[in-house]
Amino acid sequence: MSTLLDSSRLPEVIAATILSCLCLTVSAASGQTDPLLSWSDGPAKHAIVSFVREATDRSSANYVAPQDRIVAFDQDGTLWVEHPLYTQGVFALDRVHELAPTHPEWREQQPFAAVLASDRPAMARFSEADWANIVDVTHAGMSSDAFQEIVRDWLEKASDPRFHRPFTELVYQPMLEVMRFFRANGFKTYIVTGGGEEFVRVYAERAYGVPTEQVVGSSILTQYEYRDGRPVLMREPKVFFIDDHGGKPVGINLFVGKRPCAAFGNSTGDQQMLEWTQAGKGARLMMLVLHDDPEREYAYGPAGGLPDTKVGVFSDALMAEARRNGWTIISMKKDWKRIFGFEK
Amino acid sequence: MSTLLDSSRLPEVIAATILSCLCLTVSAASGQTDPLLSWSDGPAKHAIVSFVREATDRSSANYVAPQDRIVAFDQDGTLWVEHPLYTQGVFALDRVHELAPTHPEWREQQPFAAVLASDRPAMARFSEADWANIVDVTHAGMSSDAFQEIVRDWLEKASDPRFHRPFTELVYQPMLEVMRFFRANGFKTYIVTGGGEEFVRVYAERAYGVPTEQVVGSSILTQYEYRDGRPVLMREPKVFFIDDHGGKPVGINLFVGKRPCAAFGNSTGDQQMLEWTQAGKGARLMMLVLHDDPEREYAYGPAGGLPDTKVGVFSDALMAEARRNGWTIISMKKDWKRIFGFEK
Question: How many CB atoms lie under 10 A from the CB of residue A305?
């Protein structure tokens, strides 16, 4: 780390961006604190530090100009816990319960009856069409503003059944440190999620320091309409864009118009984003979070026997692709000294 | 202007954003140069200056926090010349000529035959379907990278038939000054265009100082594919999103996730964006550019008899809406001392 904060390199950094220089000056003044404190020394931490050093080194052939310093982070399972069910799924199920009194027909109608009966085996067998039905009634039919208010209220009350914490506290401390480290070096950190863009935007600034305009996600159709003479954006029960698999590079291109130089994921839904990142010029960093810590978090995918809860999983094929392409695996167990900010 | 640069207000501005404070300090040191030099004193300039003062004044009830300082600019006819045909239309027609040798059938096939014969009356009658056909063959069937390369090459060679200048020099100097003025006060300037997003992104940074991630526009379907083992984003001949009329607020919500506090347009395609902007809280600014200067540029819409070349026009109904809502009209003739940067 010392090379990065070496004062002889400061002029270059100042030239790169005024803001990042101010941050680095502060870091240097406070005694060259390790920005990746929660990371154990090892290949994952080394890959991150080496990448940032190379990307910001003007004398390097792999130097990345400040305007091209784009980093993409998947969310569920990469930035925060996704087991036993990703948070937006928990929200949708809670919302079915909340709306049930005004929908007596749901008692007899699947998939709602299974949700209301908390029939876990039936819910585990839900098809994509079942989930689409649930999304339609819980995520559409209201304005964007109203939806975000509903999500905000829910986040304040909801808590994870295992950790007994608000979901927004279940973000991975090491990943927060990586995001801050990137930003301090002039990178723009984007969340590129298969989850709902308007859902994630409610808490992205607070939880990750990522403003709404740097959240790229899936979306349903939105229509401009007038209600009581005032314009509203109404959320319709129709998929507009799925930001997953090949949709991730497409979404990044659509929203950002630049190719990331670093990308972080944890499932097959992230594979194309990592490929797309790798195929660019200059310094590159592709990383996959492996959930191999059943004590402190969970073990699934190649590292455990927990059933998968998402369409995108860390499959053996993804592991083979990672090895073939030289992507770096982040072992939660070995690489992370601390998983959550609330741990001592 | 002096109030804005008054040194007693600097501490507030510093608190607002570090970058904007640095810029203002420079301005103040260089003798309080008017940032809107090409604007005549009058209601339009006054509206802009008053808005920025109010939005950045922490003691104002209409103060706008730095993260919410979003300004949206339509492009064609608002930031640069759109007559006699908007630039992307000129590109499409030129491209038909360039591709014609490999499409002998076009000699007999409309709308291509009319383009190749330079049959202006026929082209003036082109339907939306005709234009869609032209867009399909000129804008799709290649990768995003290849398309942007084609646009880049074309922009280097093409020039406007009246001004004999590259199109990127036909940006309005007063609007460049407004964009810089906003940015110096901590605003993010977005282009929100009915035009093609990937077209505009080719020159947005160079022409307007707007990075690709701040260009919201119309798009065709893009697919993630592999060619020769390498990933590419292929442009398909299918509309994905039309960023015009109600699509402008939808597009802003999709890309930015925040409501603008100021919006600039010049046609009915911008009406909804201005309504949406106005319906928010805090300081607001809604402006429409009126083309009423046939000597230095063009006169059309309420100010002239030139035929309209776009679906969105400055109609009498739009003028009535502007009056009813208190939107400010920018008269090119009266409000702009200079139209283009190349004028002396």
Answer: 7
Cβ distance of B213 and A213 shorter than 8 Å: yes
Tens of pLDDT, residues B121-139: 999 899 989 999 999 999 9
Q: Which residues contact B249 (CB under 8 A, 6 or more apart)?
A: A224, A231, A233, B272, B273, B275, B276
For residue A255, give the nearest of B233, B250, B255 by CB distance: B255
Asked if residues B117 and B171 have their Cβ atoms less than 8 Å apart, the reply is: no
Contact A19 B22 (CB under 8 A): no
A159 CB near a chain B CB, below 8 Å? no
How many beta-carbon contacts under 8 Å exist across A and B? 86
The owner of tokens 């802003």 is B252
CA distance B39 to B46: 10
Where b means 16+ CB within 10 Å and e means fewer, A252-273 reads bbbbbbbbbbbbbbbbbbbbbb
Nearest to B276 among A19, A231, A245 (CB): A231
Report how far residue A224's alpha carbon sits from residue B257's, in angstroms, rounded to the nearest whole number.
14
Distance in angstroms (rounded) separating the CA atoms of residues A275 and B204: 27
The secondary element (H helix, E strand) that includes residue A13 is helix A10-16
CB A234 within 8 A of CB A222: yes
Does A246 contact B254 at a Cβ distance shorter than 8 Å? no
Instruction: Extract the tokens encoding B30.
Output: 């260089």
Strands of B160-241, DSSP E: 188-196, 215-227, 230-241
Confidence bin at A302 (pLDDT 50/70/90): confident
Mutate to test the interface with A, among B218, B253, B270, B275 (most CBs of A within 10 A): B253
Instruction: Write out the two tokens for B108.
Output: 């007999």
Contact A105, A85 (CB under 8 A): no
pLDDT in tens, A244-291: 999 999 999 999 999 999 999 999 999 999 999 999 999 999 999 999
Integer Cα distance of B332 and B42 in angstroms: 12
A224/B272 CB distance under 8 A: yes
Tell me how far apart the alpha carbons of residues B100 and B94 are, in angstroms, rounded to a whole number. Answer: 10
The single residue listed with the structure tokens 């991730």 is: A248
Question: Taking the CB of residue A296, how many other CB atoms lie within 10 A of it?
Answer: 12
Here the tokens at position B127 are 């339907």
DSSP letter for B338, please. Answer: -
Q: Is the ipTM of this complex over 0.85?
A: yes
Give the residue among A237, A235, A217, A266 at the shortest CA–CA distance from A129: A237
The residue whose two tokens read 């409610």 is A202
The alpha-carbon radius of gyration of chain B (Å, integer) is 21
Cα separation, B220 vs A110, whole angstroms: 37
Helices (DSSP H) in chain A: which residue ranges? 2-5, 10-16, 18-29, 43-55, 87-99, 112-116, 120-124, 128-139, 144-157, 173-184, 197-200, 204-208, 247-255, 271-278, 316-325, 332-335
